[in-house]
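In this supplementary section we document a worked example of the pipeline. Step one takes a protein sequence of length 541 as its only input; no multiple sequence alignment statistics are reported here. Step two produces a three-dimensional model, which step three serialises into structure tokens for compact storage. The input and output of this example are shown verbatim.
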Amino acid sequence: MKHKIYYLTILAALFSCKKEIKQEFLLPSTTVLERQDSKTIFSKTLAIALEKEPALRTFIKKEALKQFDMDNDVLFQMVKGNEITSGKTFYQVLTQYATSKNDLDNAIKNLPTLTIMVPEVINFSIKSWNPLTEIPKVAVSPENKNFKQISIYDEKGEIINIPSGYLPGFPVVVVKENERVAISAKGNTIMLQDGPKSLEFLSKGDLRFNFVDQAFDGTNNNLTPPSSINSSGLPLNLNSKISRSVSTQAIGSPLINVFNIDQKVVDAYNVNLDWHRDNIYYGLNPNAGIVKGKFNNRVAEYIVSIRMADGNLAKISDEPKDPKDLNKFVTPRPPRNGDPVIKDWTDGFFEFRIAILINAKNGAGTQLNKNISAVGSDLYNLITKQTGNPRNPVYEIIGLEPKDYFINEKLIPWDLENYGAAWKFIVSEFDESATSKKTYNETAKFVTNFNYEATFGEVVKVGLKAGATQETSSSNTFEYVTTTGSDELGEGILEFGSPIILRKDTKSYVGRNGTIVTTEEYITNEVSCGQIFLSIEPRQF
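The serialised model returned by step three reads:
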């Protein structure tokens, strides 16, 4: 049975120059083992409270949907004083069910970023959760990535251990420390180097709560989510490149179908030029006698979609196809560092960081930084096998398959006169840890077939490709800021002359009234960055 789980994927589209976060975090004085014990104490108490208090379940769902940190997280220190029922606060409701109030207080003290997260697992998601009828159990997040099992508690204090590589198939919430929030002492407010904005969002006594990065600030709740549409039903061809149809919607209107290719791209393909962007940006069409054209700044490059590489994952075709035992669904987290299967479903959202290095003719290189937030269901389908007690089903992860995740993230128009003929893309999966810097010295070629034309009243491109003129070169130095814990997914190059559409497929099928219907689908190019593929295409805006 195929389970489709649709996730709210909200992300700040950061178009500013690179930034560096200066921070002085107040680190916990407790050990990892002490904090793990504290999470267990809190989890056992919360499990009882969730079973006894429907209002508390409703409250947690409501708060998690706010995504204050761009994930389904509820920071306990933010809401512990909120009223839940009969004049009692969240904290007071919990103390009613604590075996020891003193132990509960110590657990909360040991975990300043204590967070309740609503994960996406089989048969349960924040969207599908009915808090009036579904009572989630409480999972304790593992102490590190090398765990053997995850412990889950019910209202009776009974424990269910989920081994690494398995997923629960019942309602569950996770108690964890928030990796998107850092604690600083009073007077050590975290600031962005490139602006006066503070990352502080909460103050409790002598503690200041800060986002570790501006990309995690969801408190304003005014960000536009990228398009999240499951592409697993679309036909795949040419090494899993995706087939898509032509957009017929009005220029500038909201994307109704994010799978569609812009009509201008298709027109350029039909002109049969080697450089499709010559036609898209400058209107060049030698078939119509047009060999000069001015720059169209109403077209820009977009990161249309991303797709993880298959890597060394288990092949799905090698597994038995028993519909009674196997379930194809989506998973909450992609593999790390070559792991054969997904392990940790308690992480929630993860963060892609894409840096685009663009050489400029004036000597000042442009660097665009894009942050893409997603859950694994946006990127993978899983094959699982049910095991365990049918009342509390557990699913073994057998294998996974990558799929396209459409985001349609706008970049900038490709002004070939002033920008280099090739752009570099650097992709990583962000994990909060110490900041590190890498320096890139990039040399780019510039085409020079641009002249002022009186008939146009401006500078125009003269001739296809680089024309008959000599190319020039220029170098720029870029500083790429990342963290020591981030997973580097690779680098890739996109050239102005790269084809956008690789080929067109014509397909026919019998319609409802018996007539033959013919459709055209286009296979598009991708930028290979090693462990991830980026689909970059121009769009009118």
